[in-house]
Amino acid sequence: MTNLSVNINKVATIRNARGGNMPDLLKVAADCESFGVQGITVHPRPDERHVRYADVYALKPLVKTEFNIEGYPSDSFVDLVVKVKPTQVTLVPDAPDAITSNAGWDVKNHFDRLSELVDIFREKGIRTSLFIGTDAEQIEWAAKTGTDRVELYTEPYATLYSTGKEQAVAPFVEAARVAKNLGMGVNAGHDLSLENLAWFSRHIPFLEEVSIGHALICDALYYGLEKTISLYKACLEVKK
Ligand code: PXP
Asked: Among 3, 104, 139, 218, which one is most buried in terms of CB atoms within 10 A?
């Protein structure tokens, strides 16, 4: 069973566009949970243009499913995560001004810092996940940091999907196998959608979690949030 964690950053972006509290981020998170998601993901960025640090504190006591905080490990981010103590922290190498995450870690070149961070979070009882591409060497370096999981960066899969889904998924099947054999859990995220999710999920039977934001919130405009969540969950339940 693969867990669906909904990234609610886009909801905060809509709210921030007007300065009030519509849509209400906390209510959306609670509704996502009552509609059956297994996790809520937030990605606070340094400029707080999406989810704000204050939102993360407010969400913590409300989120009853798995709370995943993802982001670049600046000092302020690390401090936030340690204070909030989510279920999972996903470390992402994106620059502060990046529109969205656009690459996985070069773990080899950031090995000392990432290992130190994994230790800090483990000591607080927070599961760690490193956002990563499909390169086997990088996955081996990730395992050496002691991280519990990796999150595979699926944008290249999503881009190639329409031109050849077998070729698109193949490097991810192999990367997931390498990660699993090294004892890490496998998450995935970025550009997953109703179009490409079932195929991905079917090919990686031991996928622990997908984190999905942009496409899911866009789909909710047409189907509504409850129906959209059921459609995404159905993609994850396709026979493996
Ligand atoms: N995983 C990570 C690490 C991300 O940075 C993002 C985007 O914030 C996602 C998953 C979700 O990507 P999308 O919004 O394309 O579903």
From this structure: 139
Instruction: Map residue 200 onto helix, strand or coil.
Output: helix
Give the distance, in angstroms, between the CA of residue 225 and the centroid of all CA atoms in the same chain.
19
**Joined tokens for residue 194:** 């109703």
| Distance separating the N- and C-terminal Cα atoms of the chain | 10
| Per-residue pLDDT tens over the stretch 62-116 | 999 999 999 999 999 999 999 999 999 999 998 777 777 788 999 999 999 999 9
Among the options 50, 151, 190, 209, which is catalytic? 190
- pTM, rounded to two decimals: 0.97
Q: Is 184 exposed, middle or buried (0-12, 13-18, 19+ CB in 10 A)?
A: buried
Name the packing angle between helices 111-123 and 75-84 (round to 10°). 20
How far from the centroid of its chain's Cα atoms is residue 108's Cα?
21
Determine the residue of 70, 155, 218 to mutate for testing ligand 1's pocket, defined as the one with the most ligand atoms within 8 A of the Cβ atom.
70
Distance 123 CA to ligand 1 centre (A): 26
Cα-to-centroid distance, 69 and ligand 1 (Å): 11
Q: Report CA dihedral (222, 226, 231, 237) to the nearest 10 degrees.
A: 170
| Ligand 1 geometric centre to CA of 83 (Å) | 23
